[in-house]
Amino acid sequence: MLEQLVELVGAEQVTDDAETLAAHRFDRWCLKHWQDWRGEALSTAACVVRPRHTEDVQAVVRYAASNAIPIIPWGLGSGVCGGIEPTNAQILMDMSAMHQVLEIDEENLLLTVEAGINGLIAEEAVAAVGLTIGHWPQSIGISSVGGWISTRASGQFSTAYGNIEDIVYSLEMVLPSGERVTLGKAPRAAAGPDLRHLALGAEGTHGIVTHVTLSLRRQPESRRFSAWYAPDMASGFRAQREIVQQEWRPPVMRQYDASEVARLFPDHVREDHCLILLVHEGPGSRVDAEMHAVESIMADLGLDPADSASAEGWMSHRNNVPEWRDLLEQGLIADTIEVSGTWSQIDAIYSDVVSALKTVPDCVNASAHSSHVYRSGINLYFTFACMPGDASVMGDRYLESWDRALTATAQAGGGIAHHHGSGRLRRDYLHHDLGAAGIDLLRTLKQAIDPQGILNPGNLLPSSE
Predict the structure, then answer these.
(1) Which helix (H) or strand (E) holds 19?
(2) HSE-CB for 82 with a 13 A CA cutoff
(3) Which pLDDT value is given to residue 92?
(4) Do residues 114 and 213 share a domain?
(5) Are residues 343 and 330 in contact, defined by beta-carbon separation less than 8 angstroms?
(6) Which end of the chain is more exposed for a tag (fewer CB within 10 A), N or C?
(7) How far is residue 406's CA from residue 414's CA, in Å, rounded to a whole number?
(8) Among 177, 165, 162, which residue's Cα sits nearest to residue 212?
(9) 199 lies in the same domain as 295
(10) Residue 352: its pLDDT value, please?
């Protein structure tokens, strides 16, 4: 197999050395990091292939299809739901060598890149000409644009600028047959179903994304910050609902419960109060009008202003997160769980999930904040941490926390996945969102697109057994 792959794409693009294989055993899924920290033997791919252009991808996929060899697509390895779990009978396709900016179209505000490009590098390229993608996931410095597509990602500025499905203009994908397809051509189309969505959120199971064109924006003229105290989460949710339903769009609206305020904003604690942070940006006159309107809404609802330095501080340090190994060394296993619900559901989702997490043995933290706001609802980002005395049960505590959180979310009517994707972590809970018929439809799509099941087997789809 190695000899044939070398013949197809070149010796420099194919490797089976132990160090490279070990670096591609898993992504940033906490459970795998715990297993590795414990010294468990984790499987590796047979080899890693780094294509340089779409023709390389096609050649490898056609070879794999003709020999029924599974392929695991890899962007930059920043996924957190277990989308990567190779075996020694599989090819892992690392897209990081396809990292070029292909075109910046300033007239039509379009950026075309190869899918393996680091997101921050892509943003810096358009920022140099006064533009922005407007997509700011916390992982922007370690994630690929193709990964954004594959996981149906959301960025921190989504309330104004949308999620990745609102930003992607077109994409090129290599299908499991090796055929290349370009999906999306015009600003809007009514040419049947939107086939871009066969790639969005498919997590490498429908094809391998090779090129992406994103719709850009001009850099904002003005940016300002505001912050507010709410006596409880329900009051803060109501305020955010009023803001967005009155058609104001601060790109960032984040609300932290009292526990998270104490942990993340110790200089801005008001006892038992939540903290709401807003970033306002755009044309200066609109920012002024928006801030005035928000002040009026908050006053009408009885919410008090907080020091805007809390929002500025968040902006400066928003992507600083601890490494899993650092937490494990402290005896902690932790994670974040992002869900969503309508305004009428969100109070129950918050209280029920926090309560459910606290019933997990050895739980030392169960808290939440919101980070993405819509006219009809909002997301919640739960954080849990367990500190068992016996490190061997950390994995059990981790999975039990996820089970209780997702189950409580579904029972309250919410959606169990907001923006991190599904992977192996959520796949057995997708019936809560899709229903049995929806799962069957997803499986039918997979069978039609990938009848041999060679692309990322075991990911996304629950077992049919």
Answers:
(1) helix 18-23
(2) 20
(3) 98
(4) yes
(5) no
(6) C
(7) 9
(8) 165
(9) no
(10) 98
Which residues form the domain of 396? 324-420
Give the end of a domain, one of 397, 420, 443: 420
* Domain end call among 218, 247, 276: 218
**Contact 298/240 with Cβ under 8 angstroms?**
no
Its pTM stands at: 0.96
Q: Please, where are the H alpha helices in 83-163?
A: 119-127, 145-151, 158-161
Residue 430 scores a pLDDT above 70 = yes
| CA 43 vs CA 72, 83, 399: distances in Å | 13, 14, 21
The pLDDT of residue 465: 61
Q: Does residue 294 share a domain with residue 278?
A: yes
| 134 belongs to a structural domain | yes
Specify whether the backbone of 204 is left (phi greater than 0), alpha (psi in -120 to 50) or beta: left
Length in residues, the chain: 465
How many C-alpha atoms does 260 have within 13 Å on its Cβ side? 25
Find the CATH number of the domain harbouring 305. Answer: 3.30.70.3450
Number of compact structural domains in the chain: 4
Q: Is residue 228 a contact partner of residue 276, using CB atoms and an 8 Å limit?
A: yes
